[in-house]
From TrEMBL, chain A:
SUPFAM superfamilies: MetI-like. The keyword Isomerase does not apply. The keyword ATP-binding does not apply. It holds the Pfam family BPD_transp_1. Belongs to the binding-protein-dependent transport system permease family. CysTW subfamily. GO terms for molecular function: phosphate transmembrane transporter activity. It comes from Roseivivax lentus. GO terms for biological process: phosphate ion transmembrane transport. GO terms for cellular component: plasma membrane. Its main location: membrane. This is Phosphate transport system permease protein PstA. Gene3D superfamilies: MetI-like (1.10.3720.10).
From TrEMBL, chain B:
PANTHER family: ABC TRANSPORTER I FAMILY MEMBER 17. It is found in: Cell inner membrane. Its main location: membrane. Pfam families: ABC_tran. This is Phosphate ABC transporter ATP-binding protein, PhoT family. Gene3D superfamilies: P-loop containing nucleotide triphosphate hydrolases. It is a peripheral membrane protein.
From TrEMBL, chain C:
InterPro entries: MetI-like, MetI-like_sf, Phosphate_PstC, PstC_N. GO terms for molecular function: phosphate transmembrane transporter activity. Coiled coil: none annotated. Part of the binding-protein-dependent transport system for phosphate; probably responsible for the translocation of the substrate across the membrane. It comes from the Bacteria. Keywords: Cell inner membrane, Cell membrane, Membrane, Phosphate transport, Transmembrane, Transmembrane helix, Transport. This is Phosphate transport system permease protein. The chain crosses the membrane at residues 45-65, 160-180, 200-220, 256-280, 300-321, 333-354, 387-408, 454-479. It comes from Roseivivax lentus. Residues 257-475 form the ABC transmembrane type-1 domain. GO terms for cellular component: plasma membrane. It is a multi-pass membrane protein. Belongs to the binding-protein-dependent transport system permease family. CysTW subfamily. It is found in: Cell inner membrane; Cell membrane.
Length: 450, 266, 487
């Protein structure tokens, strides 16, 4: 610690306060440096936040735009309804393979009509431009409204993910060189079609409401079903964790005697709060799926696991807000002859409610974003293509969940799915921010200062 | 050396003015805590600030080494001169000022370090020692000065927080003395101590008078009468009366002082 | 869903009990409620609680125990066959359950009559085809013993189900009646109801214990099972991790532990300095305005789900590091997924964790110590470095241990960002893998659940649980001791 030069200076320290001596200057420089480290740390934290949010937004926002081909399709009665009596049952016999040529012809005709120069001479070459789901969608439209047959109707056809990616600068001419699904000539054609307004981008509702699609059709994949899966899980968490958490907190805070049993519960709660989430996944797998034999991949199992994970959060928040109710309220109730139970349920609990709700919402937000335990109970790997039929199937039938869906997409090989994954994150974060905002508003609104 | 020279000078004229405050105002936000206080504090003297709680005596004391700087909402106007230099001058570094004006607090606040490190802390940061032997010397001198050496010389490496309350407060005094200040501010140094420890600290204060200008805030009039030569009576943020301790306690000029001395306000 | 209906009926009985109890109490005093010991509602609650709680408790226990008991009862029918075919008994029993479920489905859809289902035999009927039409696909033809066991299973389940419905409803009705009979003006209904509510509250508090017990049991049993199939010494001391589904796997935990610790170390090297300096700046230097912006902003990082960090590692940080350290740059890095990628991102995730814990701890250091130091002429940074941080050290160590436990248990970032190769190397730009990542891959793969390749996940989980629990207990102990010091 001893500093030679400074030590020497101290002997003849100028006692005038208005002159800063050499050692003090050095110390003040150290002070400034230290302060700068602190600011740098804050700046680093902010920088990471900005980079993180920035890369989410820049990578994900394009998922909300989707490319469509807008072409008139002639619904040939010869091919779609040979009997001519427009009976939907009869028309169902024509499979999607029967519709695909119609789409190809329509796209080719539209290209020719717009006078776009192209190297392709066969309508069959057009299928790289539109999604494999286009024929099925067209079929659904026709079956829903058989009278369309024989007319020429302008359809918005989902473009293939390569075309979509080309318009979003994800697919380039370099990357297309190694791609067997599409050629550079197609991209030239897309340029022409874009100029002719045959190819347009519009808001992608299907991404928000739609279901997951197979590995080869990223353009069709959506979050809707996974959102429902998360919704049902959150219902389970809310329905179980809130009452159990509040009941446990009331006991521990208001009734529990100070003994070993209570200590054991306390230790358990504080340790559960720190158990890695993956371990809860193991618990869910071993207890709920293997032992109790609940169905795999079902929101009910996910909900139960997340309930156990959320309980400590809710209990800690609830106890804090019970503690903040001043003892005078309890004394007042007891003083007019209420029982202990009545004083808690009639006076303390209502006053603590805003704090409990805030804690619950924050716990739910945590649970909503939790992924690891869902991996083990099979909610990843399940391709959520169907909406649940009713409430019971919502709970008990296999489904995915938002974070699990994002993980699923992130694992798929096609980079088009990365865009979906980022887009999914935006949706997830919108939910989380909304929930936290509600919690903050609730806290501000009802916060009581005693 | 400069030090001894000034000390000699001090002995020549014991009535030197060490600190001169002129029209000092302190505001805490909107609260006008100190109003128009002007006072001259003499060197080699114990000056006591007395008054009812909340009268501003501690606040004024904390102005003398700019401890109020650490409170964001505090604002100070007026002039405080130490050895003729304005301590609120922009060029003054509070760090240097506080090395010159030491402070002892109401509650003993030893750092959670060893007794030795507690005392050595000030000399180390101000670079007062060249060698370890120097430092040992400074620590021993400070502890002797604070009449604590004999009690702790065998356990200098023990934590300072393990001492008794009175010992802790003397350790804090030793800590303040070790940086070789010229003025020692004491903010109710005995309020957290028992009567025996109080007696020891008071005795110590009396000895310190030979080298330092000591300013002590106290709520105990007996203590002020016992240790101080000059007494200032504060009331509601104003300096009501300032005179020799004898005069204040036997023949106060102001009726408020008299009421306080006789126990009618406070 | 019969259980659902039973619950509804029980609740219906309880509602009736409540109404009757209340009116009975009022009748008993001819409408003058002042003569009652408790408010009339409490008499109603008394009857309702006695109708609901024991009945639903029995229902829950029954539902859990019934499949286990019945399975045990039919085990005798198939055990010989299992031995003959050298198949795992558990798998045969799974077949039995599947066939039984298939028969149920077939009966429900009208493909079989109840009697026909009972009289089926493997000799005369193509059961596999029948069940396939009912929507239950079987992997192979049904063996006679399995069919017999399945039929026995159905019979027993049916009988047990009937008994259960009868018993639960009887207990519910009996409890309600008992509660109603208790109604007398001097009956202390409130005290009895409050006792009941208290019991429910205690039950809720015990869920925490049950969860821990559940975790420990599910880990312990499967870990023991694993060590029966694979020597524990090899698991703990082998330096090779190469699971192969054909058998002959080497399942040493050391490479996984190495990856876990290496990634956690890098994460802490990022998070601790930044988090600590941020906390110091926020609590000692920042003005109110800066604090009110910076603190919540940094805490946003804590609210972002780990899947987002995982994706960030995989798709943003990995490629970015590749540009600098990859083949086009320094050539240290082969792929975007690496220890450094996962460590950096995990470090970012832990910054708010370290900073908010340290912030609390620094704020707990008494102002008197700061005053003492300033009073001696120390600068703010000298005060922080030489007084506040040493005083807060135990608490900060606790916070770092908690952060380390977080890092060790973190899953999504390493699953997506660290790679899959189990290696013990020093180059942080290599892909390595962790305990958590392997738990996921071993339990989500196609491995047979009873094979050591799948069961090893439980041994890994057990190791993870013990390590994180140890760190947490230690950290909480240190932090608590630290807080006591200043209280």
């Amino acid at each position: 610690m001893t500093d030679l030069s400074a030590g020497a200076a101290s002997g003849q320290t100028p006692r005038s306060l208005t002159q800063t001596d050499a050692r003090t200057k050095k110390r003040n420089a150290a002070e400034k440096r230290f302060r700068a480290y602190g600011m740098a740390a804050i700046a680093a934290g902010m920088f990471f936040l900005v980079v993180l949010l920035g890369s989410i937004v820049t990578n994900g926002v394009t998922a909300f735009q989707q490319t469509f081909l807008q072409v008139p399709v002639y619904l040939d009665p010869e091919k779609l309804d040979k009997t001519g009596n427009r009976d939907p049952e009869e028309m169902k016999k024509v499979s999607t393979f029967g519709y695909k040529p119609l789409v190809e012809d329509a796209v080719f005709a539209a290209v020719q009509a717009a006078g776009i120069e192209t190297a392709f001479e066969d309508a069959g070459d057009m299928d790289a431009l539109f999604s494999a789901s286009a024929a099925a969608q067209l079929r659904d439209r026709v079956l829903a409204n058989p009278d369309l047959v024989g007319e020429t109707v302008t359809f918005k056809i989902l473009a293939s993910s390569r075309v979509d990616g080309y318009l979003k600068d994800r697919v380039t001419r370099d990357s297309v060189a190694r791609d067997k699904n599409i050629d550079a000539a197609h991209l030239d054609l897309v340029d022409g079609m874009r100029d002719a307004s045959l190819v347009t981008k519009s808001f992608n509702w299907d991404f928000i409401t739609g279901s997951d699609a197979s590995e080869s059709r990223p353009e069709q994949a959506g979050m809707g079903v996974a959102m429902l899966g998360s919704f049902y899980m959150m219902l389970v968490v809310l329905g179980l964790a809130l009452p159990i958490g509040v009941a446990a907190s009331i006991y521990l805070e208001e009734f529990a005697p100070k003994n070993r049993f209570t200590d054991l519960i306390e230790v358990n709660i504080s340790n559960l709060a720190a158990v890695p989430s993956i371990v809860f996944g193991i618990l869910g797998l071993a207890v709920f799926i293997q032992f109790v034999e609940l169905p795999q991949s079902a929101p009910i199992v996910g909900g139960l696991v997340l309930t156990l994970m959320t309980l400590p959060t809710i209990i800690i928040a609830t106890r804090a807000s019970l503690q903040s109710v001043p003892p005078s309220i309890r004394d007042a109730a007891l003083g007019v002859g209420a029982s202990k139970m009545q004083s808690v349920f009639h006076h303390v609990l209502p006053l603590a409610m805003p704090g409990i709700l805030t804690g619950t919402i924050i716990g739910l937000a945590q649970a909503l974003g939790e992924t690891a335990p869902l991996l083990l109970i099979g909610m990843v790997g399940y391709i959520a293509t169907n909406y649940p039929d009713n409430i019971a199937s919502g709970f008990f039938d296999p489904n995915s969940a938002m974070p699990a869906q994002i993980y699923e997409w992130a694992k798929r090989a096609d980079p088009a799915y990365y865009e979906r994954a980022w887009g999914g994150i935006i949706i997830l974060l919108v939910f989380l921010f909304a929930m936290n905002a509600i919690a903050i508003i609730l806290r501000r609104r009802f916060e009581r200062r005693w | 050396m400069y030090d001894t020279a000034s000390r000699l000078e001090g002995q020549v004229s014991a009535t030197d003015i060490k600190i001169a405050a002129r029209d000092v105002q302190v505001f805490y936000g909107d609260n006008h805590a100190i109003k128009d206080v002007s006072v001259d504090i003499q060197d080699k003297t114990v000056t006591a600030f007395i008054g009812p709680s909340g009268c501003g005596k501690s606040t004024f004391l904390r102005c003398l080494n700019r401890m109020n700087d650490t409170i964001d909402i505090a604002r100070i106007e007026g002039e405080i001169l130490i050895d003729g230099e304005d301590i609120y001058d922009k060029r003054v570094d509070p760090v240097q000022l506080r090395a010159k004006v030491g402070m002892v607090f109401q509650k003993p606040n030893p750092f959670p370090k060893s007794i030795f490190d507690n005392v050595a802390y000030g000399p180390k940061i101000h670079g007062l020692s060249k060698t370890r032997a120097d430092l040992d010397d400074i620590v021993e001198r400070a502890l002797r000065r604070a009449a604590l050496w004999d009690e702790v010389k065998d356990r200098l490496t023990a934590p300072g927080t393990g001492l008794s309350g009175g010992q802790q407060q003397r350790l804090c005094i030793a800590r303040a003395v070790a940086t070789e200040p010229e003025v020692l501010l004491m903010d109710e140094p005995c309020s957290a101590l028992d009567p025996i420890a109080t007696g020891q600290v008071e005795e110590l204060i009396d000895e310190l008078r030979q080298d330092y200008s000591v300013v002590i805030v106290t709520h105990s009039m007996q203590q002020a009468a016992r240790v101080s030569q000059k007494t200032a009576f504060f009331h509601l943020g104003s300096l009501v009366e300032y005179d020799t301790t004898d005069k204040i306690f036997t023949n106060p000029q102001d009726s408020r002082t008299e009421s306080y001395i006789t126990g009618r306000i406070g | 869903m019969p259980a659902f209906w039973i619950v509804l009926i029980v609740l219906g009985i309880a509602v009736a009990g409540f109404v009757l109890g209340r009116s009975r109490a009022l009748n008993a005093v001819i409408g003058d409620r002042r003569d009652l010991h408790s408010l009339p509602n409490y008499y109603g609650w008394n009857a309702a609680l006695k109708g609901v709680v024991p009945a639903l408790g029995l229902l829950a226990i029954w539902l859990i125990l019934q499949p286990m008991l019945i399975e045990r009862a039919v085990t005798g029918l198939v055990s010989e066959q299992a031995i003959a075919e050298e198949r795992d008994l558990g798998l045969v029993l799974a077949d039995v359950r599947r066939v039984a479920a298939g028969l149920d489905a077939a009966v429900a859809q009208g493909l079989l009559s109840g009697d026909a289902a009972r009289d089926l035999s493997t000799a005369s009927d193509d059961i596999r085809a029948t069940l396939a039409t009912a929507g239950v696909a079987l992997g192979s033809d049904v063996q006679p013993a399995v069919l017999a066991a399945a039929q026995r299973f159905r019979v027993l389940s049916g009988q047990a189900g009937l008994v259960m419905v009868a018993l639960v409803l009887a207990i519910s009705a009996g409890g309600t009646l008992y509660g109603l009979r208790e109604v007398r003006p001097d009956f202390r209904a409130r005290n009895v109801v409050e006792q009941g509510i208290r019991a429910i509250l205690i039950g809720a508090a015990c869920i925490a214990i049950l969860t821990t017990v559940g975790i420990v049991l599910s880990l312990v049993f499967n870990t023991i099972e694993f060590f029966r199939l694979y020597p524990a010494a090899d698991f703990f001391f082998s330096t090779t991790w190469s699971p192969s589904f054909g058998g002959g796997s080497e399942l040493g935990i050391l490479p996984l532990l190495w990856g876990t610790l290496y990634i956690s170390l890098i994460a802490l090297l990022v998070a601790v300095p930044i988090g600590l300096f941020a906390a110091v700046y926020l609590s000692e230097y920042a003005t109110k305005r800066v604090r009110s912006v910076a603190k919540p902003a940094i805490e946003i990082l804590a609210g972002i789900p780990t899947i987002v960090y995982g994706l960030f590692a995989l798709l943003t940080v990995g490629p970015l590091l590749m540009k600098v350290f990859g083949d086009d740059g320094l050539g240290w890095m082969q792929a975007g997924t690496a220890v450094m990628t996962a460590g950096l991102v995990m470090g970012i995730m832990l910054i708010p964790f370290v900073s908010s814990l340290s912030d609390d701890i620094i704020n707990a250091v008494p102002q008197a110590l700061r005053d003492g130091s300033y009073g001696l002429g120390a600068t703010q940074s000298e005060t922080i470095r030489q007084v506040i941080l040493p005083a807060a050290l135990p608490g900060i160590v606790g916070a770092i241990l908690l952060a380390a436990s977080r890092a060790i248990g973190e899953t999504m970032i390493v699953v997506l960002g660290a790679g899959a190769a189990a290696r013990m190397e020093l180059n942080p730009f290599e892909a390595m893998t962790t305990v958590t990542a392997k738990i996921v891959s071993q339990l989500t793969g196609d491995a047979d659940f009873a094979s050591p390749e799948a069961l090893v996940a439980f041994a890994l989980g057990m190791t993870l649980f013990v390590i994180t629990l140890g760190l947490n207990v230690l950290a909480l102990y240190i932090v608590r001791k630290y807080r006591e010091q200043y209280e």
